[in-house]
């Protein structure tokens, strides 16, 4: 039983024998890099970069569901790429617009 499922995965049009498997697998590296940036201060984050990566991830996630065969590895990697960007954008927006500016207190 397990052997037949592994055989089906191996021979799938988006399986490990094709670039359609390996490109999304390596795309997880972008997600890992963005998660590693969680420790960076929010002032070093870039709005254009985070918006571009999040948007690209959502576009590719949509694309992965309309192609034949559906590429669920690409779908997961693309959503995984977008999610940390939204968190980073929230950190940047909070720092830029909602945290009080520290300075001398007037009495």
How is the secondary structure organized here?
Layout: H1 2-11, H2 19-36, H3 47-66, H4 72-98
Explained architecture:
70% of the residues lie in helices and 0% in strands. It has 107 residues and is an all-alpha fold. The chain has one domain. Helix 2 packs parallel to helix 4. The termini are far apart. The model has no long low-confidence stretch (mean pLDDT 88).
Mean pLDDT: 88
- H/E element string? HHHH
What proportion of the residues is helical, as a percent range?
Answer: over 70%
Biggest beta sheet attributes:
none
| Unreliable parts | none
Radius of gyration: 19 Å
Number of E strands: 0
Beta-strand portion reads under 5%
Domain count: the total is: 1
Give the helix/strand class.
mainly alpha
> In one word, what is the shape?
elongated
Distance between the termini: 76 Å
User: How many helices does DSSP assign?
Assistant: 4
């Amino acid at each position: 039983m397990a052997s037949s499922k592994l055989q089906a995965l191996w021979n799938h049009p988006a399986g490990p024998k094709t670039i359609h498997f390996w490109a999304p697998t390596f795309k997880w590296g972008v997600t890992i890099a963005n998660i590693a940036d969680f420790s960076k201060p929010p002032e070093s984050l870039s709005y254009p970069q985070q918006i571009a990566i999040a948007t690209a991830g959502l576009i590719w996630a949509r694309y992965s569901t309309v192609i034949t065969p559906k590429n669920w590895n690409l779908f997961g990697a693309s959503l995984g790429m977008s999610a940390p960007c939204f968190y980073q954008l929230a950190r940047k927006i909070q720092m830029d617009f909602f945290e009080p500016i520290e300075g001398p207190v007037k009495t």
